[in-house]
């Protein structure tokens, strides 16, 4: 029955129907549980791939969005004597391809470029859209603060970024990036960036560009320097990265400063209050139709706030982040929404980020105030198991029984032991990581597991695997 239904579901060209089929097959998805059987995980990720099918989507008579030309979206608003570009992709190569696709709808000069925020995949290709006439370039007062002030840890963030997005995975391993296709052209990153020339004040801005009435609304969320763009006549909303079709990445595993979750929820709520006819996300397909667009934004805002409020209740009940991360769930009426499936962000990651963002690393339990250093703890765990050999056997049993997370944790203890089989520990970790990856429909998790396994296998990582 399931195999026949799978075939029916994934022959459909409808993105919404495809995702609804997934939800039917899985009986709905419990938030915070992104592990399913390998066949389902792969089919889910393949269905999500439809969200970035390459092409130009007409969202209004004078508004066009290019999807799938890189990881993010770029949009063109056609005015009387020129066009406005919203976000410019990652570099001039991808941007030039999108610009060429836009030309079938208008060859008017670019009068303005708008950056919804300063993440590199939205700002790197501006030069490809510009001719002899230099446009005004709009951004917020805080433009450039997307990653906080943690440049001191850029070396390790770059490594973790590669893992999160699967940038070095083979074609047979890579699926996608949750809200973006894999295999994007990244060699010219940022080479087409054009610096802002017009600063949008903290109060926002209402103006007319090329005969188009346009509003700039400050909307911190995924970044502190974000804004959303509103076309009041067309009722088209450009959400930037505060909305896309996946549970939001309230924390990125590559490493980010705290993203203010309440601000994010409030910003999306303000978008919903506009009741747009179309919402154009920073990634994935536009959502068209007033009811669908408004409902998606309303649900998104509620989902973020619910995770925040549940986490705070857990904190005030004296619970630590590990426990809360396993307890917080999306409300029942939201968990099956296609745009809240955890393809990119996850609820447990969000819980941990909220906890550390509000309280820091300490969970309040005196046991964790000064924990043992890893090597000493590993020795005591081995003693508890009845010796290093017994610990090794338990690790092997966990792997054989496909208890992959436990196998990982035991391998991490074994690696510290002087009398342990470090080669076996490494091999088990590699196999367990690949086992977890096969079951993951959360793209960053899947990519990170596979990337780390490959680094271990190639010898790129030290004996301690950091």
UniProtKB/TrEMBL annotation:
EC number(s) from the headed UniProt entry: 3.1.2.6
Signal peptide location: 1-30
Domain Metallo-beta-lactamase: 71-283
Organism of this sequence: Roseimaritima multifibrata
Pfam families for this protein: Alkyl_sulf_dimr, Lactamase_B
GO terms of molecular function: hydroxyacylglutathione hydrolase activity; linear primary-alkylsulfatase activity; protein dimerization activity
Protein name listed in UniProt: Hydroxyacylglutathione hydrolase
Entry's Gene Ontology BP terms: dodecyl sulfate metabolic process
Domain of life of the organism encoding this protein: Bacteria
The encoding gene: gloB_1
CDD domains named in the record: arylsulfatase_Sdsa1-like_MBL-fold (cd07710)
Major enzyme class: hydrolase
Region Disordered, residue ranges: 173-196
Keywords linked to the UniProt accession: Hydrolase, Signal
InterPro entries with a match to the protein in the record: Alkyl/aryl-sulf_dimr_sf, Alkyl_sulf_dimr, Bact_Alkyl/Aryl-Sulfatase, Bds1/SdsA1_MBL-fold, Metallo-B-lactamas, RibonucZ/Hydroxyglut_hydro
